[in-house]
Amino acid sequence: MAAGKGLGESVLPRKDRPLGWSRTFGLLNPLRAVWWLFTNVRFAIFLLVVLSAVSLLGVVIPQVPMNVRGDSVAEEEWLNFQHGRFGLLTDPLHDAGLFDVFHASWFAALMGLTVAGTGAYVISRFPGVWATVTRPRKRVPDRYFQMAPNRLEVPARLDPGRLEQVLRRASYRVERFQEADATYLFADRFQWAQLGSLLTHAAVIVFILAAVVSRVDAFSSPLFLAEGSTLPVFPVKDPNQMQVQLLDAHAAFAPDGRPLDYRSQLVIYRRGEEVLRCQSTVNSPCSYGGYRFYQSAYFGYGAAVQVRDTATGNVIYRETLALSGKSPSPRVLIRDGAGAVLLDDSLVLTDALAGSDFIYTGTLVQLPDGRLLSIGLREPLDGGDRKLAVFEPAEQAGGGVRLVLSRGQSGVSGGLEVSYAGEQTAPSAVVRDFPLPPRADPGGTGGTGPVTLLLANVVYGTDTPSAGTGAEGAAPADTPRLTIAGLQPQAAALEPGQSLTVADREYTFLGQREFSGIQVKRDRSDYLIWAGAALIVAGLMITFWVPRRRFWAKIAATATNLAGQAPGHARYTQELRRIARAAGADVLERTEDD
Questions:
Q1: How far is Cα 455 from Cα 495, in angstroms, rounded to an integer?
Q2: Cα–Cα 20 to 30 A to 51, which of 13, 187, 475, 539?
Q3: 87 pLDDT more than 80
Q4: 371 lies in the same domain as 470
């Protein structure tokens, strides 16, 4: 056995070495070059760095939403919106596919190269690692005991039997050889730990396969349902159609408006038959047929409205409308000269008037004594502070009310004390296709047109449950009230169940309704992600917690030489000293060589 050879190097003459299966690629130079490239560690690291950088770009740069992808008109509108953010860079970013990184063909090619490189690395290393695990070198040259990084020389003969017992108690597998006047021992511990590094590399492949499966197989469909409504999950003609019905959307708020709980009661239908009733939350979705139904949004400000033709009794309109706009609602307190409270309410403003330098939005308020006041907010066009304006259209004998107040101010005019106590936000919406009464329709036929709906006495909460943002006001004790402007000269306010009849049309406020956003998802890559995570955790634990240790000993008449192999973090020289002391050697605890 040649003394100059390393521990893992063959001592057979080169011409007598067997031709390994990987060396056969040397017969074809192009394949050999490709194989060398894919098994090169630096190339693998380069691919992983590039893949990580590109993935980071896909997180930082906005990506085309799933419901927009494939719709040329919607994609064009989305890109026009991005022009305001990226300017001249928008078109180059779009042409490079950076607005849709994870669906670009070049990204798929990059992932394929990474899988091929990592797989080639694992394959090329596996035969050698397997050989060292199953057929370890049990006899090393004597020179190795003077060259090994982890070595110890004891100037005395140790008892081979006692040394073997010490090693076995430490979970080593021990073999003893007798040669001439020396006894040799080989011990191996955690030999399978050398496969740990291959597990971590295999985890990279599994993660990339999970990304591929997620791209090819994943499904996501956002649904926005009002209580009592049903929406399909797939396109209408899908033979395996599923429908989702929202029975009840629930939200609980703390007195300060902080959201405490969101949940939705759902019914799932498959091909028209009910298959599941369940409760969905943000973190605990319903599951059926491989699909998960998450609560992704909550919106509490819907108004169920019905329109009926009184002449025929037919219902011509019945919808739950989402009041997603926000209108200011000033809280006004009015007292008479004796201090009695005449008005304390948050007003719903329905009438708008545009001046040369301001916009006025207000409403008419009748006090208990019959006086009629116009109260509204005056907002300067130059961006100044919004103020409350109060005046009487018909001046009284003693002088009418004329006041302009800032928030928090009070004033006295016309025998009344008016306070601008504060301001809240009222949900509102402009409905462009609402059925109009015949007299409100310019053609006199009762067509459709815009009306304004405002909902009062409700908490204005959040439409993003996962954000945990608070509501804009405390929960009111009063009954919700819907104000409809545009049906007649003066806006009408209705409580749940109340109706308003205008020219053979009966308008009924059925009540406040809540909405839930339900995200339907299927992603069968979850199992691969869990498998990849398990592989990488197992590989790291094996590599760093139970690293492999190989031990060789030569016991001669006057000296004992110990040597071993283990990763640097195992501090194997110290372990050799502990083994020697346990076997009866007189050695120090630690030396500078350690």
A1: 10
A2: 539
A3: yes
A4: yes
Same domain, 491 and 552: no
- Using CB atoms within 10 A of its CB, is residue 240 exposed (0-12), middle (13-18) or buried (19+)? exposed
**Is 254 inside any structural domain?**
no
Can you tell me the mean pLDDT for 130-134?
Answer: 84
Residues 455 and 588 in one domain: no
Q: Please say which residue of 512, 530, 560 terminates a domain.
A: 512
What are φ and ψ of residue 528, in 5° steps?
A: -65, -35
Which run of H or E residues covers position 200? Answer: helix 196-217
Nearest to 522 by CA among 291, 221, 228: 291
Asked whether residue 96 is assigned to any structural domain, the reply reads no
Q: Are residues 421 and 559 in the same domain?
A: no
Q: Indicate if the pLDDT at residue 308 is higher than 90.
A: yes
* pLDDT at site 418: 93
Taking a C-beta distance cutoff of 8 angstroms, is the pair 322, 301 a contact? yes
Residue 476 has pLDDT above 70, yes or no: no
What is the domain count for the chain? 2
pLDDT tens figures, 407-445: 889 999 888 899 998 888 888 888 988 998 886 555 555
What contacts 443, CB < 8 A, 6 or more positions away? none
- Exposure class string for 142-164: b at 16+ Cβ within 10 A, else e: eebbeebebbbebeeebebeebb
Domain that holds residue 453: 307-311+320-512
Q: How confident is the prediction for the chain on average, in pLDDT?
A: 82
The arrangement of strands across the sheet holding 259-270 comes to 230-232, 242-253, 259-270, 273-280
- Lowest mean pLDDT of 195-209, 260-274, 298-312, name the range: 195-209
- pLDDT by residue (tens digit) across 546-579? 888 899 999 998 899 999 988 877 788 888 999 9
What amino acid occupies position 343? L
Tens of pLDDT, residues 212-268: 777 667 788 889 999 989 999 988 778 888 999 999 998 887 766 677 788 999 999
CB 472 within 8 A of CB 460: yes
C-alpha to C-alpha distances, 482 to 47, 65, 329, nearest whole angstrom: 60, 35, 13
CATH of residue 175's domain is 3.30.160
The residues, ordered by sequence, that sit 6+ positions from 216 with a Cβ below 8 Å of its Cβ are none
Report pLDDT digits (tens) over 390-402. 988 765 545 688 8
Q: What would the two tokens of residue 468 be? A: 């945990």
Would you say 420 and 405 are in contact if contact means Cβ atoms under 8 Å apart? yes
Domain boundary among 512, 532, 559: 512
Kindly report each contact of residues 248-251 with a partner whose C-beta sits within 8 Å and lies 24 or more positions away, as own/partner. 248/514, 249/298, 249/300, 249/514, 249/515, 249/516, 250/514, 251/298, 251/300, 251/461, 251/514
